[in-house]
Amino acid sequence: MSTISTTSTTRTWRNWAGNVTARPAREVSPASAEEVADAVRQAAEAGLRVKTAGAGHSFTAIAATDGLLIRPELLTGIRRIDRTAMTVTVESGTPLKRLNAALAREGLSLTNMGDIMEQTVAGATSTGTHGTGRDSASIAAQIRELELVTADGSLLTCSEKENPEVFAAARIGLGALGVVTAITFAVEPIFFLTAREEPMAFDRVTAEFDALHAENEHFEFYWFPHTGNCNTKRNNRSAGPAAPPGAISGWIEDELLSNGLFQVVSSLGRAVPATIPTIAKISSRALSARTYTDIPYKVFTSPRRVRFVEMEYALPREAVVGALREVKAMIERSPLRVGFPVEVRTAPADDITLSTASGRESAYIAVHLYRGTPYQSYFTAVERIMTAHGGRPHWGKVHTRDAEYFAEAYPRFGEFTALRDRLDPERLFGNDYLRRVLGD
Q: Quick one: DSSP state of residue 367?
């Protein structure tokens, strides 16, 4: 049996947003599933709990530990591409941006993805990362097979045919069932998407939401608080050819306005909150209509250099417009000054045990604030509205819900906790966050 050296550390780990810190007793960077298994066994013998931290893109403490922190930066790359089954098997620490680029070189693509691709594949899927889609669901819903190291150090493979009860849960496993070491995704031949971005009034978007959702493969919109203005985005497959944004106009929209200028106005808004409504009115008019065509990851994703904290809730799709109107009314009658747009996306129902879209067609409302801005009063007020509609919070974004709430929100919650009791009875993979959301 090979052994893997661990590093004793007093180095503080921080997530991307800087709102979560942890001080693990040890760190390890295994380069194979076997080395992960060795590290898990050694940690269990030493009485240390184990967590894996990918890119740290979660806003919750889901990856925090005072025990052994596994860093997966050596668990990267494509293991195999199966063009008959149309799947790709990839090491769990591979960043989505590297997977997307590698697949594109092979003439392949995922069907759908979120708008950020900094995360590792295991971190993104384990927390339920999603984009927007009428028919195509989250990244985890595109998984065909998973490999994970369980608490006893054994390597478990699961799929619809092999260990199907584990597969049902582990695709969005919250890091509670084991350490994911490899993921097999369904892929398809690369295709073109045409994106149509267009400003639209809040009242029109909300009145026409059902039609906009029905008519487009991928529809989303952003509402700018303190205004009646939205920006809409429709992504639909097209025959091509590629017609990306021009170099200068693309830089103005994606870098200057969405990152550079936004960084400046976010800093100003944090320092002088009274300026936010005026800034919002200007910002919401700065983005113009544009249409462009490119391969999927270049349309679905965009750079996010301005750091923020975020809360997002999944609601039954039919409830989202009413809930958004309640959020707008709440902000308008409150002293809150909100400098970030509110994002609305959709997802079809899926069959993953703890997916936010499990068993129901869903729509998402996401609220953000610039990093370092006090967010509790805003997020608390929004959360009150979301929970009144039976909302399910994103597992990797700020929320205050607990196991008692989730037992009501998820019909199959008990199925997940029973599987956890079987795979990790000693809670080797536990931490404070999992204790809150899953119970003991």
A: E
Question: Please, what is the average pLDDT of the chain?
Answer: 92
Quick one: CA dihedral 116, 122, 126, 132, positive or negative? Answer: positive
Q: What is the pTM of this model?
A: 0.93
Tokens 């978007």 — which residue?
205
Q: Distances in Å between the alpha carbon of 72 and those of 35, 42, 92, 210, 427? A: 11, 17, 7, 41, 21
Cβ contact 242:294 at 8 Å: yes
402-437 residues labelled b (16+ CB within 10 A) or e (exposed): eeebbeebbebbeebbebbeebbeebbbbbebbebb
Size of the chain in residues:
440
SS3 159: strand
Strands 290-294 and 308-316, bridge-based pairing: unpaired
How open is the CA angle 338-365-412, to the nearest 5 degrees? 140
CA atoms within a 13 Å half-sphere pointing along the CA-CB vector of 286: 17
Strand partners, 346: 363
String of DSSP letters for 62-94: TT--SSEEEP-TTS-SEEEEETTTTEEEEETT-
Dump the DSSP string for 217-268: SEEEEEE-TTSSEEEEEEEEEE----BPPPHHHHHIIIIIIIIIIHHHHHHH
Per the CB < 8 A criterion, the answer to whether 153 and 103 are in contact is no
What pLDDT, in 10s, does the model give residues 64-75? Answer: 999 999 999 999
Which pLDDT score is estimated for 48?
98
Please report how many Cα atoms fall inside a 13 Å half-sphere around the Cα of residue 429, on the Cβ side: 27
Share of the chain above pLDDT 70, in %: 90
Using alpha carbons, list the distances in angstroms from residue 278 to 171, 258, 275, 285: 44, 17, 6, 11
| Three-state DSSP class for residue 138 | coil
Beta bridge partners of 13: 22
Residues 6+ apart with CB under 8 A from 69: 13, 22, 24, 26, 27, 28, 51, 52, 53
**3-class secondary structure, 299:** helix
